Amino acid sequence: xxxxxxxxVEVEEVQAVTAASGPRQILVGIDLGTCRTVIMSDQGGKGLxxxxxxxxxxxxxxxxxxxxxxxxxxxxxxxxxxxxCSPLADGVIREASERDYVAATQLLEHVVALVxxxxxxxxxxxxxxxxxxxxxxxxxxxxxxxxxxxxxxxVSEPFMVAxxxxxxxxxxxxxxxxxxxxxxxxxxxxxxxxxxVTIFKAGDYIDERLAAAITRRxxxxxxxxxxxxxxxxxxAFVGEPVSPVRVTLRAEGKPAEFDVTRELxxxxxxxxxxxxxxxxxxxxxxxxxxQETTLQNIVLAGGGSRIKGLDTxxxxxxxxxxRVKVTxxxxxxxxxxxxxxxxxxxxxxxxWKHIGVMFGGQ
Length: 362
Hints:
alpha+beta, Nucleotidyltransferase, domain 5, 12 helices, 35% helix
C-alpha cells in the first residue's frame, strides 16, 4: 500500500540518471499501487508518483494546463482545472470504463518515462500486484504493459518485499497499501496461493471510515476523504495515544480545531482483527518445527507500516503463540520496487516464466 506515506514524501520524487549514450536495455522494478506508483531502474533512476491522472475539463482549462494529461502531485495541485481519474482500485486496474484503462496506460507510460535512458531504449521489468490478484487482472495489466515494455512479469507485492530483504524462508510479510493488505508466508520457495492472503481493508478503507467518523462526531467539520488521508498520514496510531490528536479543519468555511484522537484510534485499530485472523491461519500452515522462528520474523511493509504502535499491537495479539517479533521496513516507499528490480536482475528474463505470468523474453 505504498499509500500511507509521511508528509515529507507527499511531493513526487524523481531521480533520473542520464548518460551520454544510454544502454539499449533497461531493467525496472515497479510497485503499482492504488495510492502511489513507484519505479526503480538498474541505471539508478527512480520515481514515486501519486496514482492520479488529470485531464483538462474544458477549453478554458486547456488554455491553463494544456492538452496533455497531468500526473500525481501536479494533477492534484491543479485539480480545479482537471477531471481527476484514479485508475487503480484495490491494487489493480479498475475495469469500470475505457477511461480507467486509458488512464492506467498513461500512468504506466509516465513512470517508465521517468527512468528511460533515451527514447529508443527497451524496458523490461517486474511489476507488483496484490497477492491474490486474479488471472484476469494480471492479464489486463500485462496487456497495458505490452504497449510500453518489451518484457514484463507480474509477481505478488509481499513477495517483492521478502526478496528485497532476502527473507525467503520462515518469514511472514504484511504489506499494507492503499487498496489491499497482502500477507505472504515465505517457506523457501515461490509462495503458493495457500501461502498468500489479500484483505480489502487498507488505506482507502481507513480514509473513508475516518472521514465518516469525524463528521458524525463533529457535524460542522468539512472532511473529505482527501482530508482524512492527510490526517491519517500525519497522525495514524493504534493503542494508547501519546498525546491528543488535534487538527485544524474548516467549519462553515472558517478554520477551527478539532480533537480526532478517539476516531483515529478506532478506525486504525479496525484493520487489526482481520490481520490477526489471517496471520493465525498462515502460521499454522508452517511446519511446526519452524513456527517459533517464523513468529520472530514477521515484517510490516507498505505505507500502513507507519501506523504508530501497529507492530507492538500485532505482537501482543499473538503472544499466546510464544515469543513474537514484528519489525517495520526502513523504506516503505521503495522496498517493493527494490525487490522487483533485484529479482529482475538476479533471474534471466528467459526464466521469468517460471516465476509468474509474463509476456516477451522468449
